[in-house]
Known about the structure:
The chain has 6 helices and 9 strands; from the N terminus they run E-E-H-E-H-E-H-E-E-H-H-E-H-E-E. It is an alpha/beta fold and 218 residues long. The strands form 2 sheets. A 7-stranded mixed β-sheet has the order 5-4-3-6-7-9-8, sandwiched between helices. Strands 1-2 form a two-stranded antiparallel sheet. Helix 1 (36-47) runs parallel beside helix 2 (63-69). It is globular and about 50 Å long.
Amino acid sequence: MTSDPHQVTPELRVVRLGGLDIAYDARVLRPRPWTAAQARWAAELLAGAEPGPVLELCTGAGHIGLLAILGNERRLVAVDADPVACDYARRNAADAGLAGRVEVRRAVLEEALEPGERFPVIIADPPWVPSARTNDFADDPAFAIDGGLDGLAVARRCLEVARDHLTPAGALLLQLGTAAQAAVLRTGLDDAGSSLVMSEVRQPAPTGVVVLVRHGRT
């Protein structure tokens, strides 16, 4: 996972999630079992969605997007700015037998997609820990959890990508830390008159929510 012969690669770890063995190491955010609920919700949406690939933003080790396409024939475009995360996403896709349907793009969110690309389902797992609290999670890489002042800086960027790249009937599943964060984002969308509306909030874990966002205004 590294080309620097003087750099020691952290110990490889593997976690079993939703029928897949997901590899990662200490440089990548540890996949949490509860996040498989986001993948299951995405798979449910895909069952009735129009044709087209799935987009996953802030993919990390890739488990959420991979689980979402495991039981169907969809393609997945997985985006992350971290090269190590991208390496693991590719490795995990190959280990799952899904490499032929998965394209991993190393890029910042705003530069990952062409203007005309559209997706019926977008999955996003951005960092959502407020910057002042990242030290509370010493085992996690800070860059993988730091969501800015209120924990929503990257989530807002994901919303901008979704606004421009969702199909008209498409759906974004956005992971956040708390219901309070979801309420802040909902208010921000309403106040800005965005075409996006938050239509449902689910809380599959004590800390961790997933919100459904769609185009609702023109």
